[in-house]
Amino acid sequence: xxxxxxxxxxxxxxxxxxxxxxxxxxxxxxxxxxxxxxxxxxxxxxxxxxxxxxxxxxxxxxxxxxxxxxxxxxxxxxxxxxxxxxxxxxxxxxxxxxxxxxxxxxxxxxxxxxxxxxxxxxxxxxxxxxxxxxxxxxxxxxxxxxxxxxxxxxxxxxxxxxxxxxxxxxxxxxxxxxxxxxxxxxxxxxxxxxxxxxxxxxxxxxxxxxxxxxxxxxxxxxxxxxxxxxxxxxxxxxxxxxxxxxxxxxxxxxxxxxxxxxxxxxxxxxxxxxxxxxxxxxxxxxxxxxxxxxxxxxxxxxxxxxxxxxxxxxxxxxxxxxxxxxxxxxxxxxxxxxxxxxxxxxxxxxxxxxxxxxxxxxxxxxxxxxxxxxxxxxxxxxxxxxxxxxxxxxxxxxxxxxxxxxxxxxxxxxxxxxxxxxxxxxxxxxxxxxxxxxxxxxxxxxxxxxxxxxxxxxxxxxxxxxxxxxxxxxxxxxxxxxx
Length: 483
Hints:
By secondary structure, the chain is mainly beta. The chain is built from nine helices and 28 strands. The chain starts with a strand and ends with a strand. The relative contact order is 0.18.
């Protein structure tokens, strides 16, 4: 889905139409090579708001309780399966996604007879005045670990990561869906804040044992593929609807950085060209950076083990390839009527897009400048402990935090229990508390037939299997070979 929201005019002559279409409609040119956004200042962010289930920090507390699973090394470089010498990590994926409200798939996509239509009326009722969306995804392609004499463990690997944060006012989707009639005589904010990055992560690490203490350190070389970052110094965009013939006043001082995502906002075609994935398939790019992980694991007694980790320390990416800056500054006035977004999204034979579409640059007058910029990776941390009651049963406590620039830290804590039913199978459960909920029930399943490790873990089991009826999703799964 792609948001389309249009105010039609040109700077030297008025064409009085205020058109609102709703989220996520794609337009392609005749060559089918490019996809164009119309009304890009709003579309990119709102498209993300409703087209993905986004996250409130990738906590992965359940994975943290499984230090014998090789993929847990990704959240603590001191973790390594006990009494094993070689580890080969095969593909694995982790996803944690949520919205600050309680919007679900079913709130937006409604069955109407034999078809499904889009209806944002229920979703709007659940929004707060200010809403936050965060999402984290990690795809591990391959990793390696080897144990050497002298209590030394070496490790290396590659992963692709997507991390994003969006803050938007309720007035933005309300205007898009319901129009501006309810805001006559008012000035409403439509500005949003975004910080989204997609990058490859190449890592090399070392762990060293000192008696009962094991310390791990890992360096990561980052190559960015795409990013979208609003400019904190220019984040103003308001719409005022006057009492006189619905005249609209748009005031903007709004800027954003984009790399390998938005290539142009111009006066040709539909005006907003997306270049999603220009670097997506590239293993390396000129957008580079570094980050470091530190971890420790200490065996207090034969039954008690504690651990601590800090991840993505000093993580930054400098975007130099396909990087641009877009800014809209000015006051613009328009007159016109309102068309409801629902008619355009769900289809109306009376609508003629060829006479309704105008260019984004004529509306917001975005100016494009090639410009480098920098994004910061969110700092993450884990702490916990495990008590082995017997060879079969163990219990643990885990805590997690994530701190993104200029946002308050997200914190989660959880209690877990694990039962090794057989030598090659274990089950576990966890109760955790985070900012979204005080009632999260997690689950894990680990299978170890021979050298194979296969696991599934979720900090909230119900969300993992009911994505369409839940405002959040959390899951982690992967495969590895251990010798």
